[in-house]
Design brief:
The chain is an alpha/beta fold. The protein has 8 helices and 10 strands. Strands 6-7-8-3-9-10 form a 6-stranded mixed beta sheet, with helices on both faces. Strands 2-1-4-5 form a 4-stranded antiparallel beta sheet, with helices on one face. Helix 3 packs across helix 4, helix 3 packs parallel to helix 5 and helix 4 packs across helix 5. The longest helix has 14 residues. The two termini are 34 Å apart. The protein binds adenosine-5'-diphosphate and magnesium ion (MG).
Length: 235
């Protein structure tokens, strides 16, 4: 069986000349939850943005066996859902329900079916009661849940969450971990939150200077991570 995600030799340079990714190799198998660790600026978000074609660099990116390219982009975005660090940037409709229904509508479902999917997804994240509210009135934790519902409504095989616990208080972080643990999808969690990574992930990939410098258990990589702050490496 092909892996859910296969990335080979991915390189990406921003317009200002910054080489953000410099030969990333990565695989995600079905059922895995993997942490992406690494200092700020090491390339994690840039990598995530390649997984659903928001950015496109040199090298190979395949999702569920599909090369991520303009021809496959619609299907790829049905398979993999990205939740950005700042959930607010993902919520833009007048009500929570409309926001969550946006994805399924966009993928061609009828308004009735899309609303059904949205309600089911809100139920899954424990946010049914907020369906009629304006997203900007929600707390940070609630916004995160709604953003996740928006992804779930499209029924993806893979979830990618970029620093999901950053704006949450400790109870919010625990609730998020509980919610994510109950979701069957394979997951990539970009995080600096080691207790969260330890609780959620079976392995970790460690980004340094635009490459995955090491992979291993979360514990091994967490030690590397702390060590990098004490004695940063240049390679
Ligand atoms: N829009 C952009 N334009 C130019 N450089 C960028 C842009 N976004 C990120 N970078 C640079 O790319 C590198 C990787 O950034 P990023 O992927 O955001 O890292 P991380 O998510 O690990 O903190 C950094 O050097 C960052 O400054
Ligand atoms: Mg980032």
């Amino acid at each position: 069986m092909s892996p859910l995600i296969l990335v080979q030799g991915l390189r990406y340079q921003y317009d200002d000349g910054t080489v953000a990714l410099n030969g990333v190799n990565f695989r995600l198998e079905a059922g895995e939850t993997v942490a992406l660790l690494g200092a700020n600026g090491s390339g994690k978000t840039t990598f995530a943005l390649h997984l659903n074609g928001l950015l496109s660099g040199e090298g190979t990116v395949e999702v569920c066996g599909l090369p991520v390219n303009p021809k496959n982009i619609v299907e790829v975005r049905r398979k993999i859902g990205l939740v950005f660090q700042d959930s607010e940037s993902q919520l833009f409709m007048p009500t929570v329900l409309e926001d969550v229904a946006f994805g399924p509508l966009n993928h061609g479902l009828s308004p009735g079916k899309a609303a059904q999917r949205a309600l089911a997804a809100l139920e899954q994240v424990g946010m049914s009661a907020a369906a009629g509210k304006a997203p900007y009135h929600l707390s940070a934790g609630e916004k995160k849940r709604v953003a996740i519902a928006g992804i779930l409504a499209v029924d993806p095989d893979i979830l990618v969450l970029d620093e999901p616990t950053t704006f949450l208080d400790p109870p919010g972080q625990r609730a998020l971990a509980q919610l994510l643990s109950a979701l069957p999808q394979a997951k990539i969690l970009i995080t600096h939150d080691m207790p969260f990574a330890r609780a959620m992930c079976s392995r970790a990939a460690f980004f340094r200077n635009g490459v995955i410098a090491e992979e291993g258990s979360v514990e091994q990589m967490a030690q590397r991570y702390e060590w990098d702050f004490i004695a940063p490496r240049t390679t």
